Structures are given as C-alpha cells and as structure tokens.
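Fold this sequence, please.
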Amino acid sequence: MNIAPWLWLVTVAVLVAILAIDILIIGRRPHEPSMRESALWISFYVSLAVLFGIGVLIFSGPQFAGEFYAGWITEYSLSVDNLFVFLVILTRFGVPRKYQQTALLIGIILALIMRAVFIAVGAAAINAFAWVFYIFGAILIYTAIQFVRNSEQEDSEYKENALIRWAKNNLPATDTYNGVKLTIVENGKRLVTPMLLVMIALGTTDLLFALDSIPAIYGLTKEPYLVFTANVFALMGLRQLYFLLGGLITRLVYLSAGLAVILGFIGVKLILHALHENNLPFINGGEPLKGVPDIGITFSLTVIIGTLVVTTVASLLKSRRTQKDEQPAKTH
C-alpha cells in the first residue's frame, strides 16, 4: 500500500477526535453504562471498522481488505481475552462500578500509545531484517503454549507485576477513592489514590498484551497502516464491551484454547513465510527454501473466524451444562 502522509494525518486526527469525544462524555458524567448504551457504542465502532474495510477494498483491493479484516478480528479476539485480566484488576483494586469506565478508557489510551510505538519498531525491524519473522513466529508459538497451560488457572493466580508492587510500597497513598482523581492532598501532603495504581496496572498489562498482539497482526499483514488501524478499531470499543458482556466473559471457558489455536497458526504462518524469504546463512545457505508454502490471507481469515465460532459455541454449551449440573435437584 502506498499511504500518503496526509492520509496518515487525517486517519490519526479522526481517531483522536473520536477518542476525545469519548473522554469528554465520560469526564463530564462518570457512570456505569447501561446495556443499551454499551450496545450502541459497540455497534458504532464495529460499523466504523466494517466501513473502513470496505474503503480499503474499494481503493486498495481485496487482498489488503482481507488483511485488515483478519487483523481486526484477531486483535478484537485478543482484546476480549484481555477483558478477563481487566476484570481481575478492577476487582482486586475495588474500583467502584461508576468509575470503571474512566479507568478502562485511560488504560486503553495508554495501550494505543504503546502499541503505536511497537508498530513503528516492528515495521522498521521487518523492513531492515526479514529474519525477524522467525522471532515473531517463535513468540506467538510460545504464547500459544502459555495460553494452553494457563487456560485452567483461576483468577486468584493473577500476580501483580514489579512496577505495581514498587508503586504500592514506595508511593504515599490513600486507601480511598476520590472520584477519578489520581492524587489528593491530605493534611498538606499529596497522596496518590488507588486510581493511579489501577492506571499503572492497566497500562503495564497492556504493554504485555502488545508483545503478543503486534507480532500476531504482522503475521497477517506487513502494512503498518493496516496494523495501526486494526489495533485502534479493536481497542476503541473495548470498555463498552467490558460492560456489555458482563458475566458472559466468564462463560467463554474455551476462549484461551481458541486463541492458542489462532496464535499458533499465525506463528507457523510467520515461520513458513520466513523460510519462503529466507536470508539466514545457516538455513539452506541463506537461500529461500523451495516448495515452502506461503499461506494466503483468505485461508487465514477462514481459520480465524472458524476457530472463534467453534470456540464460542463450545464455551456457551459447556457453560450451560455446568449451570444445569449446579442447579439443586427439584424436591416433590
């Protein structure tokens, strides 16, 4: 794709404007959104993504449109899995429901900033070193294995990272929330509120998520513009999705297994692509391997969507059976 600088500027400006409106709405009235409000916002963001993909189809062709949709769906799926961790963080810190929107929104903005950095670094690495696909592929396969290993873990096994522990132990803090303020002054001394610790927790967690999601989407498209827009569209409706799904999040019991399949598949795809364009001297003398397949975007999109459909249906059926088993037997 040949993306003119002005198009990058317009895209970033429009997305920033949408986020600014979002921040203004929440900032003026922190509240727990209703199901209807959440559904409307998600419908709006999903519609924007679909329309954007249609625009890519019209101006750049089906190949790039397919890459965008595959990347967006993958990133959105990974974002749903991220909601499990967000749920744990917000619960552990006891964030009041009416302030959770603000916490999630700030966390998402931090995620966008960090992912933008990762996207730029990833694009530069790919352009300079084709062998980076080997590394990306290995990261995704390792992550897929970790998803399988951790799929049975309970929320109680979540561990705070070193930065959160340092902040708790070294920053003068209060135990009570004061709206969405990050600091307050008590007895002439400035203290941080639990909300700041929540922001740190969400931001650092988003950083870890980016380490998986950016290699994943670069396995589907090498276009930084599509990587960036797919990530933005996947994250923009995340906070509303958190409230809309509610208890349904915990019912997606096989989501980690499904994501493991998707990440493993993309990891293999990346390694095959690296072999297809091999330039490592200790592998076939640096020459591309003949007969190595290069998996197309149509097949990739089919695998991603098929895996998510099977995972969702199987999860809901499993949850329904579990609920029936847990119901007390009727007495006559």
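The first strand starts at residue 183 and ends at 186. The CA atoms of residues 121 and 204 lie 18 Å apart.
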